[in-house]
């Protein structure tokens, strides 16, 4: 009985997939994203840039002549929600690929489903690194690319020797700061303290008191986006701590809306709105035109998402079909020139990127202090 | 010295945040689990005021007004049928909290909003620079404690409220309109909660869940206090102090449960709280 | 349990058949469903089935026993983390897997047991247990956070080794677990012990004074429910291959309350459908309208709590009662001999009163509340077959005296001996064990239980209670049977007590107290609110208790005429002190008593 069902099921799927190709139905791209929860602040900008990419591709005739359809699902920024979202996208919506910016918890929870179904998955969020799957590709930065410019700046330009590290207690927070500590120590600096609070914590008083009593030369933080980042920055400014402050998790838009509290923060990004390239200017203009007053400031999460959809397009075109295995084969070989420059996920499923070190100004804008060309992501997944 | 300031200011914040919950529990014998949502409403009131360009100092009276109106509406619609079912009242107000939070999401989105602070930076006390706003909150807590005491002992409403607290049937027999006392109390409690929400925004982000983490701690403090103003002050100092000490010397994460754990133990030993009879 | 075969009545057998039939049908559905449902729905349903198991435990603890628990999610979390942590850090294989399962269950059971001991002591307010259950998930989540890399902190753990069985297999596992737990829960709540849970919910104090070990029963229930919750959590984690702190968190705890409340607390089936319905719907709406859905659930929850406290199940059962077949009017218990319960005479003399020992001896008893002294230096003895009345003006300390005799934790000085045994600091249910029966001033009984149920549960101390069965008979001592006959209650055994008259309630209460086979009977104003005829009847009953059965009856009474008629001896209390202990004549003629009562003339006249 079982076997029979299985066989007939297989036959059905086969028939269906052949039929689908012949019918030229839309190519479905699943976008699990944190519409609620910690990522809800940045999620709208990610959805917007995805919509722009899909619209542009569709206007230009689609991928292999087929239209692109986006399916957005809320992952609640956490593991439980991500499982529902991935399940729904893979098994209910039967998407051809998953392209998303998510928390590390959500990504880890979704990966088993990705692996079980063999779906190509482009992860577009910067993250703590070393997450490896034959189905997953990453077009955003890892600590090796992001942390080094800030630490170098603090130690070489500002003469900092002692550091204090504060983070949210989750994989990104810990992963980033562990790399930071290692890099600081390798460079001859000392870490006076490394403290974490849970993602939903809002009272940083005891940690800040500890910072004041230890008196570090510089502080580097790596919290979850949104509320924890804001509360930490506010409370730090309110407590009169006034040393160089590098924030690994703040984006341009959030920095701007935080007002005076954000002034002076150092950030290190692969994308800033001020990048002077044709592609970026064209991208910003198109976003402005499409979303007008509803526009969420494009940022280092929404731009990789935009580029990833084009990378997927290129891979499908190279493979000649949406066949999952063929697309996965093609993904590391294709490249796309987007707002951040030439993007190719060629190094162990990760991407060499041009990084910018910036500082938030009084008016909320970010001034680029230094630019680092094609920073290598290093050994992320040596087995891939 | 900064440690002492941390303890005092943390206690002050806890006192301010829990006061509204205590007033409602004291007079109405009702645990308001929408308290967290009321705090959030206060935060958003503050955001609205500064977003429209008014002075950040106006956030407090505006939040109080919003809270009072909200409280009266909630008492009339949800709370009134539940006086005889105290455990159900906890659940209904919890559900109400969910509803209020979702309405806020519809109105303002899920993201973090920024309310302008009335003052920022530090003040120098006892030869240390310390967060100015936290110091202001100590002053506010003291004034609030004195104000509430005065309200209870020096006004007609306070007299009626105390009568209802002691013996509601008797109070009604004496011609005190207990319905009116209750609706006023709930309005007052909600107003205090919203004010507290507005007062803590300079230290926090304004987001739809900002009030939630405060709910359980406030609840515990109020129970430990024995539902009395000096009791609440003492409970805030003791448990707030314990929280700061544990956070500083043991682990900031365990600091987060200090109040809950200590309260559970204290209530086992003294079920009626510190100042309960 | 000699007459086991007759105790399993036809009714019991019918119930077992019914439950068995439903279980088989449900299992058939569980096996067949994956063949018809699409894979996504099956995936979603597996999770929902595990959560429904959790909902059943919430219903048992809250719906049936009345303990508002926010913490059931903690046990779910413990089970889930046991699965993830052992597989991640220690090892994986059939033995490891099963071992982790047992460890999770044991850990949850121990936690629940400790929490139970902490929160269900005698005299704990219902609020206190709620506070502890609220604290529990918060503490658990912080412990998980504090675990750093080991527990994965906020991110949780995912991708640990587990059994990647086909979803159909997982569906059958989850479904079978749910059906099994639901059926056992069903048998359990319909059993003798299940009735006792309801009695505890309705009047915990009264249960304690009937000798029912309320705290122990609650702790045991909480422990078992903790273990079941952990089993559900373990399955959930093994299937989803992800654990996160939210699985053990306060929000899941409140969510489970919402499922139970919407489905209908105290119905078992309501919470199951509540959990599955809400969880599956939110999975479908998570993409399109996550916030609107949450809003709707919130609004529904508030409405249900305010206007429909028994949830949507009550709409269904209400309609069933109105329009369904075999409807019964509430008064249908009037029909004589519906046969569900048979009264028998208990073997006499389980409590021989030894001749030379006083059934009750009080020595130097005192009771203070802070600086207020309510009773001081009280000493007297009661003899077998004696009716001892305690009189005194309001505030003399009469009821306090009753409390000090029946609850070892009340007095602040002196000793109370029952048949030679010190009551020490015993809780009421254990004082009942020594042979003290107490009736109360008010007649609040267990509204939704029948007369027969009430009598059966009052025999818990002597006869125990069946875990999954309903016994068909109650053995009562002769005096209790006598009262039931005298009041005609023996013909209304199927009637719910709320429909009884005041006099019948008094009679039932007395019969229940006597069913515990006391040596000393404490009666607090048994004639209050009774008619003259009922009063006379009670008087006769009391006389027969002392003369025929040799009980020692201690009576508090305001009606001095009544006291004069039936008492053997009278103790007069005034301002917490004993002013006189003597025969009826001595007391009546005493000037001292008149002066005590001066200003209370109305009471003397009554």
UniProtKB/TrEMBL annotation, chain A:
Residues 1-22 form the signal peptide. Residues 26-364 form the Leucine-binding protein domain. Keywords: Signal. The keyword Signal applies. CDD domains: PBP1_AmiC-like (cd06331). The keyword Signal applies. Gene3D superfamilies: 3.40.50.2300. Belongs to the leucine-binding protein family. This is Amino acid ABC transporter. It comes from Fulvimarina endophytica.
Automatic annotation (TrEMBL), chain B:
The chain crosses the membrane at residues 12-34, 54-79, 91-112, 132-154, 186-206, 218-239, 246-269. GO terms for molecular function: transmembrane transporter activity. It comes from the Bacteria. It is found in: Cell membrane. GO terms for biological process: amino acid transport. It is a multi-pass membrane protein. GO terms for cellular component: plasma membrane. The keyword Cell inner membrane does not apply. InterPro entries: ABC_transp_permease (IPR001851), BCAA_transport_permease (IPR052157). It holds the Pfam family BPD_transp_2. The keyword Transport applies. Keywords: Amino-acid transport, Cell membrane, Membrane, Transmembrane, Transmembrane helix, Transport. Belongs to the binding-protein-dependent transport system permease family. LivHM subfamily. This is Branched-chain amino acid ABC transporter permease. The lineage of its organism: Bacteria, Pseudomonadati, Pseudomonadota, Alphaproteobacteria, Hyphomicrobiales.
């Amino acid at each position: 009985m079982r076997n029979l069902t299985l066989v007939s099921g297989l036959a059905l799927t086969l028939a269906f997939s052949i039929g689908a190709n012949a019918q030229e139905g839309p190519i479905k791209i699943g976008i699990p994203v944190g519409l609620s929860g910690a990522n809800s602040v940045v999620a709208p900008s990610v959805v917007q840039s995805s919509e722009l990419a899909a619209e542009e591709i569709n206007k230009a005739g689609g991928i292999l002549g087929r239209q692109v359809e986006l399916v957005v699902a809320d992952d609640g920024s956490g593991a439980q929600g991500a499982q529902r979202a991935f399940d729904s996208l893979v098994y209910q919506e039967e998407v051809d690929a998953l392209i998303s910016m998510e928390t590390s918890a959500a990504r880890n929870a979704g990966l088993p489903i990705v692996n079980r179904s063999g779906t190509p998955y482009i992860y577009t969020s910067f993250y703590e690194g070393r997450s490896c799957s034959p189905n997953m590709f990453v077009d955003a930065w890892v600590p090796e690319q992001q942390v080094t410019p800030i630490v170098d700046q603090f130690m070489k330009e500002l003469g900092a020797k002692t550091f204090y590290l504060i983070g949210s207690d989750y994989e990104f927070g810990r992963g980033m700061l562990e790399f930071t500590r290692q890099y600081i120590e390798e460079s001859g600096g000392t870490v006076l303290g490394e403290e974490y609070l849970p993602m939903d914590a809002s009272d940083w008083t005891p940690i800040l008191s500890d910072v004041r009593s230890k008196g570090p030369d510089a502080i580097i933080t790596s919290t979850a986006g949104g509320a924890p980042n804001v509360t930490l920055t506010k409370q730090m400014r309110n407590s009169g701590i006034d040393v160089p402050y590098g924030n690994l998790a703040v984006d341009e838009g959030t920095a701007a809306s935080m007002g005076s509290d954000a002034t002076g923060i150092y950030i290190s990004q692969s994308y800033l709105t001020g990048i002077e390239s044709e592609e970026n200017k064209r991208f910003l203009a198109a976003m402005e035109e499409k979303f007008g007053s509803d526009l969420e400031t494009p940022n280092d999460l929404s731009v990789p998402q935009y580029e990833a959809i084009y990378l997927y397009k290129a891979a499908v075109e190279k493979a000649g079909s949406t066949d999952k295995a063929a697309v996965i084969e093609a993904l590391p070989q294709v490249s796309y020139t987007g707002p951040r420059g030439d993007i190719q996920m060629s190094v162990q499923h990760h991407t060499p990127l041009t990084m910018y070190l910036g500082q938030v100004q009084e008016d909320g804008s970010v001034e680029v202090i230094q630019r680092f060309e094609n920073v290598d992501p290093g050994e992320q997944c040596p087995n891939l | 010295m900064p440690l002492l300031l941390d303890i005092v200011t943390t206690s002050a914040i806890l006192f301010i945040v829990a006061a509204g919950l205590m007033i409602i529990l004291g007079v109405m014998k009702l645990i308001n689990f929408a308290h967290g949502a009321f705090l959030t409403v206060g935060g958003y009131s503050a955001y609205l005021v500064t977003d429209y360009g008014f002075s950040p100092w106006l956030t407090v009276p505006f939040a109080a007004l919003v809270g009072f109106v909200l409280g009266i509406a909630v008492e009339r619609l949800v709370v009134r049928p539940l006086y005889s079912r105290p455990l159900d009242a906890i659940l209904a107000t919890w559900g109400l909290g969910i509803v209020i939070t979702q309405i806020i999401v519809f109105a303002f989105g899920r993201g973090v909003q920024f309310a302008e602070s009335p003052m920022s930076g530090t003040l120098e006390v006892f030869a240390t620079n310390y967060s100015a706003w936290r110091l202001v909150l100590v002053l506010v807590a003291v004034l609030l404690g004195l104000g509430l005491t005065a309200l209870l002992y020096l006004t007609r409403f306070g007299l009626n409220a105390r009568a209802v607290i002691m013996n509601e049937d008797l109070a009604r027999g004496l011609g005190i309109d207990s319905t009116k006392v209750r609706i006023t109390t709930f309005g007052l409690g909600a107003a205090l909660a919203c004010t507290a929400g507005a007062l803590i925004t300079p230290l926090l982000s304004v987001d739809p869940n900002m009030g939630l983490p405060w709910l359980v701690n406030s609840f515990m403090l109020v129970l430990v206090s024995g539902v009395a103003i000096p009791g609440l002050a003492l409970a805030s100092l003791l448990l707030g102090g314990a929280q700061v000490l544990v956070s500083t010397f043991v682990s900031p994460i365990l600091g987060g449960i200090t109040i809950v754990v200590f309260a559970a133990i204290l209530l086992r030993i003294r079920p009626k709280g510190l100042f309960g009879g | 349990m000699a007459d086991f075969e007759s105790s399993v009545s036809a009714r019991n057998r019918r119930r077992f058949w019914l439950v068995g039939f439903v279980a088989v049908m449900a299992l058939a559905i569980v096996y067949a469903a994956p063949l018809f449902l699409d894979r996504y729905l099956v995936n979603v349903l597996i999770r929902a089935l595990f959560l429904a198991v959790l909902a059943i435990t919430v219903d048992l603890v809250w719906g049936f026993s009345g303990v508002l628990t926010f913490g059931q999610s903690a046990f779910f979390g413990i089970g889930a983390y046991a699965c993830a942590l052992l597989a991640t850090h220690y090892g994986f294989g059939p033995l490891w897997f099963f071992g982790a399962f047992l460890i999770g269950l044991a850990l949850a059971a121990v936690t629940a047991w400790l929490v139970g001991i902490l929160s269900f002591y005698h005299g704990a307010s219902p609020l206190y247990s709620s506070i502890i259950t609220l604290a529990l998930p918060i503490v658990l989540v912080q412990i998980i956070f504090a675990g750093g890399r080991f527990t994965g902190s906020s991110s949780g753990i995912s991708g640990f080794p587990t059994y990647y069985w086909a979803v159909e297999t997982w569906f059958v596992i989850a479904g079978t677990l749910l059906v099994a737990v639901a059926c056992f829960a069903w048998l359990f709540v319909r059993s003798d012990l299940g009735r006792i849970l309801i009695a505890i919910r309705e009047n915990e104090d009264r249960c304690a004074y009937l000798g029912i070990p309320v705290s122990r029963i609650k702790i045991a229930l909480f422990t078992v429910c903790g273990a079941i919750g952990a089993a559900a959590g373990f399955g959930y984690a093994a299937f989803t291959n992800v654990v996160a702190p939210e699985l053990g968190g306060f929000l899941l705890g409140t969510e489970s309350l919402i499922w139970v409340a919407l489905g209908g607390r105290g119905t078992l089936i309501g919470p199951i459908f509540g959990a599955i319905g809400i969880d599956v719907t939110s999975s479908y709406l998570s993409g399109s309208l996550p916030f609107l859905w949450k809003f709707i659930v919130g609004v529904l929850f508030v409405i249900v709590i305010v206007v429909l406290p028994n949830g949507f199940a009550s709409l269904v059962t209400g309609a069933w009662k109105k329009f369904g077949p075999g409807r019964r009017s509430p008064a249908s218990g009037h029909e004589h001999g519906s046969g569900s319960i048979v009264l028998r005479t208990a073997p006499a003399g389980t409590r021989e009163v030894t001749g030379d020992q006083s059934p009750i001896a009080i020595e130097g008893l005192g009771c203070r509340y802070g600086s207020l002294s309510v009773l001081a230096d009280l000493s007297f003895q009661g003899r077998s077959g004696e009716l001892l009345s305690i009189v005194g003006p309001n505030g003399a300390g009469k009821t306090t005296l009753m409390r000090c005799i029946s609850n070892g934790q009340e007095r602040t000085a002196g000793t109370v001996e029952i048949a030679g045994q010190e009551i020490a600091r015993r809780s009421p249910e254990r004082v009942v064990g020594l042979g003290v029966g107490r009736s109360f001033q008010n007649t609040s009984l267990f509204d939704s239980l029948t007369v027969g149920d009430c009598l059966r549960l009052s025999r818990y101390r002597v006869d125990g209670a069946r875990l999954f069965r309903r016994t068909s008979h109650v053995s009562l001592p002769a005096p209790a049977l006598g009262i039931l006959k005298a009041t005609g209650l023996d013909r209304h055994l199927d009637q719910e007590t709320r429909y009884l008259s005041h006099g019948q309630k008094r009679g039932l209460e007395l019969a229940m107290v006597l069913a515990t086979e006391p040596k000393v009977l404490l009666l607090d104003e048994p004639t209050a609110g009774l008619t003259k005829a009922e009063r006379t009847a009670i008087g006769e009953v009391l006389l027969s208790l002392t003369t025929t059965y040799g009980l020692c009856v201690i009576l508090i009474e305001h009606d001095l005429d009544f006291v004069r008629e039936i008492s053997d001896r009278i103790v007069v209390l005034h301002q917490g002190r004993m002013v006189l202990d003597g025969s009826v004549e001595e007391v009546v003629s005493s000037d001292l008593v008149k002066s005590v009562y001066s200003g209370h003339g109305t009471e003397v006249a009554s």
